[in-house]
Specification:
single chain, alpha+beta, Glutaredoxin, four-stranded mixed beta sheet, about 25% strand, 4 strands, about 90 residues
Length: about 90
């Protein structure tokens, strides 16, 4: 077991290719969430970059484990959506 209560993967694939999550600001979203979750939850939450999750046509894609909960149609401004999901599960 990793020791994390929640593990969030955000696709940052292909920042130089139009239409891919990386070109939609996913790295900025990941960095903001990593910092915020680190301050709020410490080592209970891990926020990672992932390769392609297979849903680039639907905006930025993310998945939260251990639930396997998917988030699609995200934009780089959707930090609050993912933060609330993590916060809800960590309680």
């Amino acid at each position: 077991m990793s020791g994390y209560k929640q593990h969030l993967f955000i696709c940052t694939n292909s920042p130089d290719r139009e239409g891919k999550c990386g070109s939609k600001g996913s790295e900025e979203l990941r960095l903001a969430l990593k910092q915020r979750c680190g301050k709020e939850f410490g080592k209970d939450v891990r926020v990672n970059a992932s390769g392609c999750l297979g849903h680039c046509e639907r905006g930025i894609a993310a998945v939260l484990y251990p639930q396997g909960e998917w988030f699609l149609d995200l934009a780089k401004e959707d930090q609050e959506v993912l933060f609330r999901a993590v916060q809800e599960k960590i309680k």
